[in-house]
Amino acid sequence: MKLRQRAWLALPVVASVLLAAACSSSSSSSSSSAPPASSASASSSGGLKTGLKIFVIPKNLGNSYFTTADSVKSGGALAALQALGEIGAETSGTTDTPSSQLPVIQADISKGAKALIISATDPTALCPTLEAAMKKGIVVVTYDSDAPTCRSLFINQASSQAIGDIEVDLLAKQLHDTGEIAIVSASADDTNQNAWIGYMKQELTKYPNMKLVSTVYGNDDTATSTQVTQGLLEQYPNLKGIISPTTVGIAAAAAVLDTPKYRGKVALTGLATPDEMKKYVADGTVVSFALWDPANLGYLAAYAAVELASGKITGAAGQTFTAGKLGSFTVGPDNTVLLGPPYVFNSSNINNFNF
Amino acid sequence: MAPDVDLAAVPPGPGPSGLEALRARAPWAFRWEAGLALIVVIIGIIGTAASPEFLTSNNLFNLGLSNGEIAIMALPMTLIIISGEIDLSVSSTLGMASCLLGFLWARGWPMIAIFVVIALVGLAAGALNGLLVTRVGLPSLAVTIGTLTLYAGVAEILLGPNTVSNFPAAYTNLGVNAVPGTGGAITYSTLIFAVLAVIFGVVLHATPVGRSIFAMGASPEAALYAGIRVKRIKTLLFMVSGLVCSFAGVLYTFRLSTAVANNGVGLELDVVAIVLVGGISIFGGQGSIPGVVLGVLAFAGIQNALLLTNFNQEASGVVAGGLLLLSVFGRNAASYASRLRARVPALRRRTEGPAAGQAAAGSQP
Amino acid sequence: MTPTLLRREPPETPAEASSRRLTERVFRIRETGIVVVLALFVAVTAGVQHRFLSDSNIQFVLVNTTIYALLALGETMVVISRNVDLSVGSVLGMSAYLSANLFGEHPGIPIPLVFLVGLGIGAGWGIVNGLVVAGGRVPSLVVTLASLYIIRGVDILIVGGGMVTANTLPGGFTGIPKATVAGIPDLAIAVAVVIAAGAYYLRSYRSGRELYAIGSNPEAARLAGIPIGKRVLFAFAVSGAIAGVAGVLWAAQYGTVDSTAGTSYELTVITAVVVGGVAIFGGSGSVVGAALGALLLSTINSALYVLGISDFWIQAIFGFMLLLAITIDRIISVKLTEALRLRSNHGGT
Fold first, then answer.
1. Alpha-carbon distance C131 to C325, whole Å?
2. C131-162: b (≥16 Cβ within 10 Å) or e
3. Is A235 in Cβ contact with C305 (below 8 Å)?
4. pLDDT for B224 beyond 80
């Protein structure tokens, strides 16, 4: 009976498919704001405007992945905005749906936003509102999850192909390229998940002895993800590995596999935050998994939004800008900026991370 | 609390007799709706004070857009609750209609034919609820929890993992544009809500059917003996609910330009909450359409004001729940006062003033 | 809704004793019915996929059932008294986060103390619900709908974007749902004992029987001198306390807790209770039936996954099951009423 929710960890879609996000989101909220400053049009040393009102709009509030991406404490989007002298605030709805995100986006526009940094809950549903915002001269940047037709830039955490490839490669290494495997995805209509799964299938052709037997959906609900994982184990007694490209799914699957019966016998990899996996890496249930640094994603999106709002770039392919500590980035095709390759976590490095 | 709000409006001076006189002269001042209207005004004042944007046409437009479908679904829910039943399947009916729209559109059906099918399916969904409640004699709470799941399940079967979002602009514009000539403040869903509210209001408050609905909610047995066709009317109410909710599903789909299996999930409790805030008794037999319209304004206004004022949105559930409790206590204030007096006769003289005020504030028509 | 559904039985006659026996037999028939459906379901599923009855799957199903069965116990006590508690999912969520968070805040805290904290959080909210319902004489549907929103809202405010992760939880804690005795999870045995205790209380203690009396006819119960407020308050307190403990178990089972734990559990629990034969408007039903209802739902869920049936069908099947169950109950109760009337007529002439 648990109702379907979108995966909160919606990641980027293939760059070529490109979704750009543009859309509005809304909800109110917590805010961190910037240093006292200033008139909205003053220029700082780098030629960037300061005092701009910029809203960061994750898919929903209360989501630890987005909290890391956005907060000052973790060095995310709000930290970058603060450093640049802008007035930043994080707002969103409490559930991961367009109908919850839309009123917040509209309210942010009413509040005089100069730029919106959004993780789109739907690639199309937010567009009328985001297009209206862009017509008013508000900069729209998407991050994490795109709305391709209604934004100026999409900040892509990693290319979909890189994500699909690395998860299959990590699993293949553990299984010595052989055995039945399955995927525990988020919801069946999640664009990012489906794009990654598409690339996983493509990458699997390199490993003829690995067979994908099933793809199941846990709807990013812990209890449902647990049950679908249990069902896989019973249905496919020869199952050797599971890929779960969603943090809720992989945490639930890890809890199921964390028994002597399955530990080391059914391998698990996917996308997860290091904190979620520390226990399971320590006890050997999970060997390695991938992700990017969500804080860097938010940080980069904030810089890109300020560059756009200051008129330094327009979002056209080939333009270059510097994003503080992260260095220089070039806008790629489809008005997309790529954060970098996914990062692999394992027992040797996991304890260096705290998110 | 509501009683305080109403008490504030009453001069502290008059004793019981003064209050009673006032009550006789202006009975409307003592209804929950009056308290609610005051709450709406207060929300308006606070909202305007907190943000100059609050009463702009642009914000009213946004407010109507975000709450249109919920408000529309609250109208048939009002009639059903007054008749002594409840319909929790409203949001699933909305979702099922949304998925049906996507499913048939993706298969190239003409829009008119799709509307007809959706209307028929909505009526059928309501009829199933109604027949199980009236003919099989099952409690509507249990029946509609069952159909809540069943209809959401049908939505999932229809669309599965697919999303349909290629609806023609002529239709999706209806979902996001303002009605011409309204200064950009009124959405189509607001207009539809207003028209439906008038129709439902007239039916409920000015026709024999409306009186029957109140009668069967207040006392089903008496209604039956009075010759009211309780079963038929209740079945019809559920069918109207199915029809209106599937229509709300079409609006929802066009507003978001997206048909997806989880559309509308979880809205049922918001709809019930609005109706209850509007002063409808959960036990049936009491309430009014103007009250529900005010309930919509209070519910939507508070959420919107929170958004505009940088208040922590995460707490909006606390505010919604608080408003709900306020409404139920406001309505019940009368019985508290009489209980208090009955229990503590010694205190009677001292408490009578305020107690009478509370009683009056909460009393129902 | 209540008035419509309140169908008063005709005044009881000398045939009272025998009719009570008949009623009890029907209860038993009702529970037997669920067991039969359960057995059929298991047999068919196992016939298609024999691993459905593997040790590991039996453990999975039993552990998955424990939380719902516990919640169903508390909910049954509330429902029998002609009330409803919609706040159980929110209470579970808050208790899951706050109790699991203790391990990180106070490393080395004894596990039983954490369970006590969870129980306390739940009982606290249950008492608040009960006081408002019983003291304010307001409908429990409205009160617990409000507390569903409020408790979840407070939970989200407390948790923010935080999360308790498995690495902060001691192995002894996350191991609780995995321990087994002869292939049966310890947890399932413990929950069965708690349910048996609940069933014994409702059957054999005066205050337990009084909950049925309140639910079947509140007016009569008041005239009979039953302290309705006190009993209803107690039922809500128990339901809350159980939801609190269930929250701690939720954290132990899943290891990762954020502010969404337990969202929308209330409708699943009420479904289990109603499928288990408890009348939604009070006065009849048994805790054992409700627990069996929870077991049936988990079994169906598991069967669909194990058989690899598309999960898009699960919701529709659940909804259909629920409608079927209440329809069958209604038919049984109509027949029962007829049988009782026949008997009492017989006795009277």
1. 33
2. bbbbeeebbbbbbbbbbbbbbbbbbbeebbbe
3. yes
4. yes
- Report the pLDDT value the prediction gives residue C23, as an integer from 0 to 100: 65
Closest chain A C-alpha to B149 CA, distance in angstroms: 7
Residues 6+ apart with CB under 8 A from C193: none
Return the CATH number of B32-307, one of 1.10.3470, 3.90.550, 2.60.120, 1.10.10: 1.10.3470
What are C229-246's pLDDT values in tens digits?
A: 999 999 999 999 999 999
Would an 8 Å CB–CB cutoff place A39 in contact with chain B? no
Mean pLDDT, to the nearest integer, of B53-60? 88
B143/C326 Cβ within 8 A: yes
Contact B283 C1 (CB under 8 A): yes
Separation of alpha carbons A234 and C304, rounded Å: 12
Inter-chain contact C51–A235, Cβ cutoff 8 Å? Answer: yes
ipTM: 0.84
| Residue B236, CA distances (Å) to B182, B232, B312, C2 in order | 35, 6, 42, 20
Q: Look at residue B334 in the predicted model and tell me its pLDDT.
A: 58
CA distance A323 to chain C (A): 25
Q: What backbone torsions phi and psi does residue B203 show, to the nearest 5 degrees?
A: -60, -45
Asked if A130 has any chain C CB less than 8 Å from its own CB, the reply is: no
pLDDT tens digits, B310-331: 766 667 788 888 988 888 887 7
The torsion region of residue A155 among left (phi > 0), alpha (psi -120 to 50) and beta comes to beta
d(CA A296, CA A65): 12
Chain C residue with minimum CA distance to A250: C256
* Three-state SS sequence of chain A: CCCCCCCCCCCCCCCCCCCCCCCCCCCCCCCCCCCCCCCCCCECCCCCECCCEEEEECCCCCCHHHHHHHCCCCCCHHHHHHHCCCEEEECCCCCCCHHHHHHHHHHHHHCCCCEEEECCCCCCCCHHHHHHHHHCCCEEEEECCCCCCCCCEEEECCCHHHHHHHHHHHHHHHHCCCEEEEEEECCCCCHHHHHHHHHHHHHHCCCCCEEEEEEEECCCCHHHHHHHHHHHHHHCCCEEEEEECCHHHHHHHHHHHCCCCCCCCCEEEEECCHHHHHHHHHCCCCCEEEECCHHHHHHHHHHHHHHHHCCCCCCCCCCEEECHHHCEEECEHHHEEECCCCEEEECCCHHHCCC
pLDDT tens-digit map of C181-192: 988 999 999 999
Residue B176 to residue A128, Cβ atoms within 8 A: yes
What's the CA gap between B92 and C315, in Å, rounded?
A: 11
- Considering only CB atoms, which chain B residues are within 8 Å of A93? 313
Quote the CA–CA distance of A71 and B226 in Å, as a whole number. 65
In chain C, which ranges are E strands? 180-181, 184-185
The predicted-structure confidence for C255-270, as pLDDT tens digits, reads as follows 999 988 998 899 889 9
Average model confidence (pLDDT) for chain C? 88
The helix or strand, by DSSP H or E, that contains position C349, with its residue range, turns out to be none
pLDDT of residue A142: 97
Please check the confidence at residue C228 and state whether its pLDDT lies above 50. yes
**Percent of chain B having pLDDT more than 70?**
82
- Are C253 and A255 in contact by the 8 Å Cβ rule? The answer is yes
Chain A CB contacts of B62 below 8 Å: 103, 106-107, 110
Sketch the domain layout of chain B as residue ranges. 32-307
Quote the minimal CA–CA distance from B163 to chain A in Å. Answer: 7
pLDDT of residue B27: 63
Please name which of A280, A285, A234, A243 lies closest in space to residue A263, comparing C-alpha atoms: A285
Question: If you compute the radius of gyration of chain B from its CA atoms, what whole number of angstroms results?
Answer: 22
Sort out which chain C residues have CB atoms less than 8 A from A275's CB and list them. 163, 165, 167
